[in-house]
Design brief:
The complex is a heterodimer of chains A (178) and B (171).
Chain A lengths: L1 H23 L5 H22 L16 H29 L1 H10 L7 H11 L2 H14 L3 E4 L2 E4 L1 H16 L7
Antiparallel strand pairs in A: 1-2
Chain B lengths: L5 H24 L4 H28 L4 H28 L1 H11 L3 E3 H8 L2 H13 L3 E4 L2 E4 L1 H16 L7
Antiparallel strand pairs in B: 2-3
Classes of the chains: A mainly alpha (178), B mainly alpha (171).
Chain lengths: 178, 171
């Protein structure tokens, strides 16, 4: 149970620090900033685990996870999942979620909503071209594609990634993009 | 004396989570409704995990270790789920992934304007609107699309997060 208590406490600390950082010290790459905060919290978590007693001073013996290395590993797993599956995912959805942005646009307007209106006004009036431009910039930043003159070209890293995605989509019998 | 229940709990969680992944993949391959199938198959496997753990605990120590093994099982299973779902949805719906795949299928290069013509279009929006209607977040009427109460709650929750984290328009 020590693993659950420490991981939960550190997740609350992480969310608080992320909120402060994003509000008062935002960088060009918030996801990277969040990941750095996560690694800082992991160090604190490890220190907290080693400097506190096995029962945290109040846990009954029946609530202790044994062996101790399993308690430690579970704590890291819970915290990592809370970050990558929770906080970072929340950021990704809030900042890049296509469907969610459509819902927010519909919520924040009094206009009649149809596909044509959204093409022009998606993303608080920025439009669909802006949305796709963000995706392209993301691919360029992560070096999955290169821009050469008017052309976009897959890098070798991009080719490998595309091959993996294609194989998974074929395995899942999903329609190919053409 | 009670036996340490955690390793057995984790093994049960891993086996049932693997069963869930297999079920989900079978559903995707046979084109079942994705979200509904995902939720149903996970709920079924989660319930099976709990039944397995309760049965194991009753057999080993008359249920004395349930107070430890149930939270561990639920939390571990939830963690696996929140790591699995974003990975799957990236492959299913991401426009960046779709762009990479399209480039791969066209000799690795394309004019940038052709990509915009393919992905920044009315068709993409129309397709996503249909998904949102199907998922119960939007309703279609004579005047166009409007939010359902479920869609409004989700939109407001994320609008709040965007304000809290100063994220700008996003999307």
């Amino acid at each position: 149970m020590k693993a659950i208590i420490l991981a939960t406490a550190m997740t609350i600390v992480l969310l608080a620090v992320v909120t402060i950082a994003l509000r008062f010290h935002q960088t060009a790459q918030p996801a990277k900033q969040m990941t750095l905060i996560y690694f800082g919290c992991v160090i604190l978590l490890v220190l907290a685990w080693f400097t506190t007693s096995v029962d945290l001073g109040f846990l009954a013996p029946s609530l202790l996870i044994e062996p101790e290395w399993l308690d430690f590993s579970l704590m890291l797993f819970f915290f990592t999942a809370a970050f990558f599956g929770g906080a970072l995912q929340l950021y990704n959805l809030a900042d890049r979620g296509f469907s969610l942005r459509i819902l927010i646009d519909v919520e924040q307007t009094t206009h009649t909503i149809d596909a044509d209106w959204l093409v022009a006004n998606y993303g608080a009036g920025k439009g669909l071209t802006w949305m796709y431009g963000k995706r392209i910039e993301g691919l360029l930043e992560t070096k999955l594609v290169d821009r050469k003159a008017e052309m976009l070209e897959l890098t070798s890293k991009g080719e490998r990634a595309a091959d993996v995605f294609l194989a998974v989509r074929r395995f899942l019998r999903l329609e190919p993009y053409s | 004396m009670t036996l340490n229940p955690v390793p057995a709990t984790l093994i049960a969680v891993a086996i049932w989570f693997l069963a869930f992944v297999c079920l989900h993949i079978v559903g995707l391959r046979s084109r079942k409704g994705n979200v509904q199938w995902l939720v149903l198959s996970y709920a079924a496997c989660c319930a099976a995990t709990l039944v397995t753990i309760v049965t194991l605990s009753m057999w080993r120590d008359s249920g004395q270790t349930l107070l430890l093994s149930i939270p561990i099982a639920l939390l571990t299973s939830t963690c696996l789920f929140v790591l699995y779902v974003p990975a799957v949805y990236t492959i299913l719906t991401s426009l960046s992934v779709a762009t990479l795949i399209l480039l791969r299928r066209t000799d690795g290069r394309m004019p940038e304007t052709s990509l915009y013509d393919r992905f920044a279009t009315r068709g993409i929006i129309q397709q996503r609107l249909c998904v949102l209607v199907g998922a119960g977040y939007l309703a279609e009427n004579a005047c166009g699309f409007s939010l359902t109460s479920r869609g409004r709650a989700l939109a407001r929750a994320f609008a709040f997060i965007k304000r809290l984290w100063c994220l700008g328009p996003g999307g």
